[in-house]
Write a structure and sequence with these properties.
Organism: Symbiobacterium terraclitae
Shape: elongated
Transmembrane segments: 53-72, 84-111, 148-172, 178-197
Distance between the termini: 50 Å
Strand order of the largest sheet: 1-2
Structural class: mainly alpha
Helix content: 55-70%
Strand content: 5-15%
Order of helices and strands: EEEEHHHHHHH
Number of strands: 4
Oligomer: single chain
Keywords: Membrane, Transmembrane, Transmembrane helix
Number of domains: 3
Protein name: B box-type domain-containing protein
Amino acid sequence: MSCTYHADREVRGICASCGRPICAECKVELNGQPFCKNCLAARMQQPARDINGFVRFVLSIAPGVGHLYMGLFNRGMQFFMGTLIGGMVLGMVFPSLLGLYIPAAIFFSVFDAREIHLRLSQGLEVEDRGFVDIRAVPIQWSQRQLGIALIVLGALALWRVLTIDLLQMLGLYHVHRFINGLTLGALALGSGVWLLLRQPGNRR
């Protein structure tokens, strides 16, 4: 296989934009990816997205919304939904930690959006990549997976009722911290031991 633009030269890469084979003279590296000079010139001629820094900062206070404003749909939606679901789960299990969770999510959203904005303003390519590769996750859940998910959600809801709401009704509000801490510690310890015992070297 020879270079698309120089038939007598050896191929040194494949253009990340058009997919054509290119030689060393035609190849230009950008962000660690090879591009042919024609595709790179066309990319540089594209008008840069006009992003207002103040608007980006204000929108980033809602995790993921600032990313959506900058055109990063996958990352923004995953960030927004992940923060929402994480807050709901944490509210059912450890509502006292919401005071730390929410500011941490806002800080990370503002910081991450600012870093992406800087890369865009420098003309660098930013991949719209979320925290989880959706393509690697099966779109259709099996009946078993759906059942496990429902059991986990139901268990979390019941745990909140038993360890928070019921204890508050009985005037034992501070007891739920002890119960939750003990349960979380036991689960973390048991899960860690279970994972270590399941290592290939420990199986006989």
